[in-house]
């Protein structure tokens, strides 16, 4: 097994930070030509700089996944895309009582409509070439409920639904669609959630303990799974929701 991406063209959304940055860097290490996209240009450029410093091939493209124009522009810029990673996502702490309509709309716009917008822009090219891999970042919160994460779970369950529907619709088009469901992974995303708690240190300990392994995951541990799903070694894998959650979903 080589796990080589062999000059394939990959695009990662939200690749300026955390899991997306780790996936872009891992793909470049496996010889992919990576388009790093993010709505935050500086963060995305930093990822490109790290990839190039390590000898990889990368470019930056500003892409806000909530903008259909940005998504169509990206598909025009990259008419031949082999691997799409829909990673950009946002979170929110709240129950039905403490989540506003605006919170719900904001999470939906990025986490669900964003996956829809980017996939819709790139899918026709993949269908016409009868080849392509799409990997969506869902979450443990797309498979089981999480207390105080009403809007987040609602949107991540939708990402799992999009993944499975697209996998069935496009299996015979030569396209594989999978999602990854991480438990808690130590990234700026989790740091931002911690700040929403009155005692962030206690919240950190509690979040780490949710995983059976007693710790949070690392972005590189998620990137390794993305690499597998992107490679030809995973040619028989489609429609899956790949749990990488330190045992969280195995039970109490
Ligand atoms: N960190 C975790 O514990 C965890 C667990 C499960 C799932 N996830 C999912 O993994 C993905 C990445 O999470 P992370 O922890 O690396 O987050 P992060 O906050 O560290 O990085 C997210 C990146 O997405 C970008 N982004 C946000 N909105 C965007 C938009 N509209 N268009 C383009 N880019 C946008 C941000 O600028 C940022 O660079 C998300 O979908 C998240 O829901 C994370």
Give structural notes:
With 252 residues, the chain is an alpha/beta fold. The chain has a single domain, classed as 3-Layer(aba) Sandwich (Rossmann fold). The chain has eight helices and seven strands, in the order βαβαβαβαβαβαααβ. The chain has helices at residues 18-29, 41-53, 68-77, 101-129, 150-170, 188-194, 200-209, 219-230; strands spanning 9-12, 33-38, 57-62, 83-86, 132-137, 175-182, 241-244. The chain has a seven-stranded parallel beta sheet, sandwiched between helices. The chain is globular, with a radius of gyration of 17 Å. The mean pLDDT is 97. The protein binds nicotinamide-adenine-dinucleotide. Nicotinamide-adenine-dinucleotide binds at residues 13-14, 16-20, 38-40, 43, 63-66, 87-90, 110, 114, 137, 139, 182, 184-185, 187-190.
Question: How would you sum up this structure in a few lines?
Answer:
The chain has 252 residues and is α/β, with parallel strands linked by helices. The chain has helices at residues 18-29, 41-53, 68-77, 101-129, 150-170, 188-194, 200-209, 219-230, and strands spanning 9-12, 33-38, 57-62, 83-86, 132-137, 175-182, 241-244. Helix 1 runs parallel beside helix 2, helix 1 crosses helix 8 and helix 3 (68-77) packs parallel to helix 4.
């Amino acid at each position: 097994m080589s796990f080589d991406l062999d000059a394939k063209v990959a695009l990662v959304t939200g690749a300026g930070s955390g899991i997306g940055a780790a996936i872009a860097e891992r793909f470049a290490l496996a010889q992919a030509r990576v388009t790093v996209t993010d709505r935050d240009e500086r963060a995305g450029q930093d990822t490109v700089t790290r990839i190039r410093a390590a000898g990889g091939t990368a470019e930056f493209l500003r892409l806000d996944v909530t903008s259909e124009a940005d998504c169509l522009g990206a598909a025009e810029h990259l008419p031949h895309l082999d691997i799409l990673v829909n990673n950009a996502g946002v979170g929110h702490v709240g129950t039905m009582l403490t989540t506003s309509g605006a919170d719900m709309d904001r999470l939906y716009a990025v986490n669900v409509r964003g996956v829809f917008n980017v996939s819709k822009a790139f899918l026709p090219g993949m269908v016409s070439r009868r080849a392509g891999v799409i990997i969506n970042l869902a979450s443990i919160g797309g498979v089981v409920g999480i207390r105080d994460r009403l809007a987040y779970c609602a949107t991540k369950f939708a990402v799992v639904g999009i993944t499975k529907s697209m996998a069935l619709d496009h299996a015979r088009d030569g396209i594989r669609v999978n999602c990854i469901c991480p438990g808690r992974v130590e990234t700026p995303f989790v740091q931002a959630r911690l700040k929403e708690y009155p005692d962030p240190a206690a919240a950190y300990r509690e979040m780490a303990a949710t995983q059976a392994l007693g710790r949070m995951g690392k972005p590189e541990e998620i990137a390794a799974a993305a690499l597998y799903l992107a490679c030809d070694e995973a040619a028989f894998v489609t429609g899956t929701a790949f749990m990488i959650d330190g045992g969280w979903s195995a039970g109490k």
